[in-house]
Records
---
Amino acid sequence: MPSNVQALAQMADHTATQITASHESWTDFLKTAARLYKYPYHEQLMIYAQRPEATACADETELLALTDSALEKLRRMSDEEYAKLDLFPDFEDES
């Protein structure tokens, strides 16, 4: 039974072979890589292998920092500011 490192290496090799097999698959990978430009190639490859439709990635620490920041903003709001928030925006078509 392969270790996790071996399994991930196999996944990376398989994905690299798959994305370079055709022009269309390479273009699909580049679309994902363009959305994930902050990451190095090997991480883009692994993200694509697991979730090609990914639009953003963050580790647990980043997510907690974003959540804490948003909650702190809400805590500092006055009652009037909070009441003005549109928590349920209307997504109906404005034809």
---
Amino acid sequence: MNTVTHEQMRILHRLSPPAFLLSYVVAIIVAVAYEPVLPSGFIVPWLVSMTLITLARSLSVLLYHRKPSILDTPIKWALLYCVGTLVAGINWAIFGAQFDAQWPSVYQVALFTIMTGLIAGAVGSHSSFFPALACFYSPILLTLIYVSSVQTDRAYLLLLPLVIIFWIMVHSGGRRFSKMLRTNIFFQQTLANNNERLELLARMDTLTQLQNRSALELYLNENWAHFYRNKKWVSIAMLDVDFFKAYNDHYGHIEGDRCLTRIAEVLRAMVPEDFGFVGRYGGEEFIVVLPGCSLDAAQTLMAQVQAQLRNEDIEHARSGASSRVTVSVGIHSAVPESESDWVAAIDRADAKLYIAKQRGRAQVVA
């Protein structure tokens, strides 16, 4: 579930800056407004501590956005954020603990309103990760319960059920929202993963597990312009299984499929995925695209493919080229002449393949 937690952290850190700013503005207003009833020896240090806490939390958010490599450990960010909200909540709780029944009623009402208002605001900005919300409101509400219960005037006890009810509402609402968000994130990620798998399947030949023609077109559309701009040599090899129809007629289509699969395995082993593109072009034809590969290097590689295929020793009693399965190969190598002439390049490789078949098959023509 780390991916879900990571997304929760992303949402939390995106919503944090406005919440930090609003909380700090409220702290300044409160410090100024309560100056008549609180000593400056308390207000000034409290406001300084709120300033330091806000700066530290803002720095944490900045580091989160500047260090994407660290996002692989979202739990650490979650713990760090919870520590920040807990410290901020404790700081507000310290202010709430200064409550005094001797204050004018406007200050008393304002204090409870401010504290509950801060919590209500935190529900909107912190509910994406419920532990962070709980770390903020718990010390504040505990303090409100405490100051209500220790007053000499028992009328203040009437505030206790109100604070407790408010706590239950915030707790249940925040927890429910967080759970719904986690479920939504999980389903969105599952859907995205399934869509990615479907896209991969759509670009894969189900028989050979090589990439298909659609994948080839996508690959060349995405990369050919880069090859052109960088004046990069590109070699394209077209491979055709010699007398494959005769193979199918003699051994059957199931054996024909196994033959194609074994050829695909040879190509996959000889041409690593990070070296170039390997795919099934259609029927018994395969295609290999080799960026940065000269004509000589491509010829050498295709000769090695033919040699490896001979080592596979696949019997072909009806072949006019050999007693074993062979392939004909046509290679075209050039620096692209435009950003989109890859179709012409494939046609030239196909023309070389045609020549190889005319010359007797089981050979490479470049």
---
Amino acid sequence: MKKKIITALFTIVFTLSASIGFTQPPPPPTGAGHGASGNQTGGNAPVGSGLVLLLGLGAAYGGKKHYRMHAEEIEE
């Protein structure tokens, strides 16, 4: 029981420390730091195509695993 508590504690600590390590610094104050007049909006990352790619690869991998598991059940 003690080993499970220590393992859970280490898992929580390492997870939280990893999320803190990847934080971004705050943006510069309005009107300073970007050299242009007016408020500049940040750039948007194209998440749509990458998300579709990851979902497609995940579905293909899951289908492959399901097919192999089903094929092994039939052989037995």
---
Amino acid sequence: MRWAEAGLFLAPLLLLAAWWLAARLARPALVWPVVAAIAGLAAGTLWYGLSHRLDRGQDYVPAALIDGRIIPGHAAP
């Protein structure tokens, strides 16, 4: 296994450990703004994912270089 894959696998566990340690050491006044920020990021991610998805039956066509011109990626039926 490569180091990058191991790092990506362990990243959530390390973040959880950091969160647990910070919650134990931090004042309660700092915990709620962090929780609100994480909830805001989760809501923004969910909104972006739902607003930029493809319709049923559409496939993503990746960007291509045709005759020296870049054709951006798009959805096709």
